[in-house]
């Protein structure tokens, strides 16, 4: 299928490919120079300390200034930066001048609380304007934010606060989700309880729901601090490599990784990709990315990319079904959204509800559609294109990761002829390969591993506090190349198809979860002796969490005969990690399939979870284990 639309920018965009090919460094320097540099850079890349890159090293900039003041000074202060739509129906809009004023005050609040350059600030907020304001205020003073998704539990919050030694937490009384107020502050109280996070000196609390809050000596109302703060704040320049944020993501071990991003290179690529992948025309566009700022998509394509480009965007607090199933389409109609960026899992859930719901709204403003987070199946792609895009809007399927910081592989509207289900081509400036076990590039049609062969500006600079893990996870497997953890294949045209993770990382509704992390949550429950977790195909969520557990029967019996093992363990995982990690299914088994060296063979468990004939069992220490698991499941002796 081809997109038949002519784009004004067609020529310029195809030029990007040839320019980047001819002179990759010159190309990135040109992109970086679209930002405002307080002190211009003279060096583009230093890769001599690989795998830690420095980009634009001797340049100095202020990230928040680039996202705010610069637009105001250019005479665009009246342009709307954020249209905020609250779930209960309240809305607020901020012009660039107003958003700048808020961030200046917030920067002064942070400074008055003793936050200095390099200090870590944890942000645990719902999708409200204060989340963006807080991030930009932290950036403005050269401090480092660590945003923690509001759906994470107190336990997860505590681990992350602790790992980064955050000095301040910014939270809210709660937010609105699924038609009701949902509290956030209690999780912060739990996380900080009994001095579990001694680094935290203060907690700033935004009033959103007006619900009851427990008040501690560290707590300060955001509104009071803002009212007392000075309105003026001058943005100072920081070196390009000044850390901007840490964002935790799941890896193959139980401990989340604090992915570190810095300033100049990150902002360069976030802004460049946002501009070109979404075919921006800033005057007329209204852009909406539905991601929460708790994920990388919300960092690069809500907070930084769009604001650096000075566009008008929509942010929405709640769930797509509140108070009715057409809420998203109503928002698009209300603000005349022209660019929509969302995840396949959302598209599939709308598909299931049927086209009659979006058909009730005027979606004619839509011009470009984006997809991110997981492979988009061709059915969902076609539905998205036809029902939401009216067969006019091209779809950009964007592949990237928390680690890559910004989009890496994606068609460019008007240049690339799109193909349902394929992320297609590395964007100009990026060199992506599909390699075999030996790291050598494969021929088209052969499946292998996705790698990035050359450093890029928004690449992670490390894992917070763990340089060894950084080296081992991404660089040791294929020396000289970044190993993404995804399987991939190029088709006969050379277009890239992402085949999913090749490690023990799952992708549930576009969110990354680690098997090991959920396993350790399960075994922390007294009833569980051993656990193995796999991601099984799921029609709605892409993958779903399926857990196999060996119970400590004496403990379960002690809890009484009516113990609901499945429910208790699912709730336990939600409490330990967050509701997104809750297993779809808990399967009680007597044994787990292991190799002779004791490694759990998750591949075989995946066969069971996906109802497939069980694969090769010859490497198992005990080859009868799988037949006893299948027999037990077939007999229904399970929860
Ligand atoms: C993993 C990264 C990138 C922001 C959201 C997720 C998968 C991401 C695609 C896509 C196929 C995709 C990969 C990747 N993924 N985008 N367009 N097609 N798979 O960020 O949590 O860091 O997860 O998401 O498996 O490795 P993340």
TrEMBL record:
- Which SUPFAM superfamilies does the record cross-reference, listed alphabetically? Acetyl-CoA synthetase-like
CDD domains xrefs = ACS (cd05966)
What region holds the AMP-binding enzyme C-terminal domain? 517-599
PROSITE patterns given in the database record? AMP_BINDING
Instruction: Give the UniProt record's GO annotations in the biological process aspect.
Output: acetyl-CoA biosynthetic process from acetate
| A single Gene Ontology CC term | cytosol
Q: Mention any Pfam family matching this sequence.
A: ACAS_N
MF terms from GO for this chain are: acetate-CoA ligase activity; AMP binding; ATP binding
Keywords for this entry?
A: ATP-binding, Ligase, Nucleotide-binding
- In which family does this protein belong, per the annotation? Belongs to the ATP-dependent AMP-binding enzyme family.
What is the recorded name of this protein?
Answer: acetate--CoA ligase
- Organism encoding this protein: freshwater metagenome
